[in-house]
Design goal:
Shape: globular
Number of strands: 10
Bound molecules: D-glutamic acid
Helix content: 40-55%
Strand order of the largest sheet: 4-3-1-2-9-10
């Protein structure tokens, strides 16, 4: 896959909600001269407890919408869609598609860590995609997995630093903490919003990975920094634009000035 340096078309990104902003944030830091179109499918949030068929259908609508905006590539900034819908998305997309799982796995298999925990939505954990990919390259690694379905609504409600967040972390992760893991992988793009709370819970002793930095690294190989970016990202949602704007502004260093409601 390669791109022309002069291709000025925007990069399309989608997630079920705010989570993909954690990916966009890293992209804006590392590839500041690209243009971006973000789609949050709030009408169908959460994806994590839906059927595979529904997740594929939602994802296809998202890529069709982004393609209608003439994007040059699409980032599936949702681990759930990356876990169960990637093949269908790639088959249908007329532009290159990047997922958030493979670049992170590439990093995991390069380290010496022996005990890794993967957390994500019910669907991502049930798909077992991380373990399957990791084990292909690294056999002698112990992998623990845990679905944390309450983390997404906690983030979407803006309750990241709250008591409820701390209780949910304890509820889901006490078993994992007892295993003395070396690395925790945030297999859901919403989870970096609570990364500080997670670091604290593990006494700042373990490596916590999320997809944003790795997907940025991967894209940097394809796009070179050229002219200065003139436009702020453009945001679309399939429901609740005001809510997306308020919460997005709260944890995103780039101010979200306007969000457009679309029917896809
Ligand atoms: N942020 C998404 C993910 O990475 C989806 C969360 C959800 O909608 O359940 O899995």
């Amino acid at each position: 896959m390669s791109f022309s340096l002069n291709d000025k078309r925007p990069i399309g990104i989608f997630d079920s909600g705010l989570g993909g902003l954690t990916v966009l944030k890293c992209l804006l830091e590392n590839l500041p001269n690209e243009e971006y179109i973000y789609l949050g499918d709030l009408a169908n949030l959460p994806y994590g407890n839906k059927s595979t068929k529904s997740i594929i259908d939602y994802s296809i609508k998202c890529i069709e919408f982004l393609q209608s905006k003439n994007v040059k590539c699409i980032i599936v900034a949702c681990n759930t869609a990356s876990s169960v819908a990637l093949k269908s998305i790639k088959e249908l997309s007329s532009v290159p598609v990047f997922d958030v799982i493979n670049p992170c796995v590439d990093n995991i298999v390069r380290t010496d860590n022996k005990k890794v925990a993967i957390i994500g939505t019910e669907k991502t954990i049930e798909s077992d995609v991380y373990s399957a990919l990791i084990k292909k390259h690294k056999k002698n690694i112990k992998i623990y997995t845990q679905a944390c379905p309450l983390f997404v609504p906690i983030v979407e409600e803006g309750l990241g630093g709250s008591k409820i967040a701390k209780l949910a972390i304890e509820y889901y992760l006490s078993n994992i903490r007892a295993h003395n893991i070396d690395q925790l992988v945030l297999g859901c793009t919403h989870y970096p919003v609570i990364i500080k709370e997670l670091q604290k819970y593990f006494n700042d002793k373990i490596d916590i990975l999320h997809s944003g930095p790795f997907i940025s690294e991967q894209l940097l190989k394809y796009f070179k920094q050229k002219s200065k970016r003139e436009k702020a990202p453009i945001y679309y949602v399939t429901d609740l634009p005001d809510r997306f704007q308020t919460l997005g502004n709260r944890f995103f260093n780039q101010k979200i000035n306007s969000v457009t409601l679309v029917n896809i």
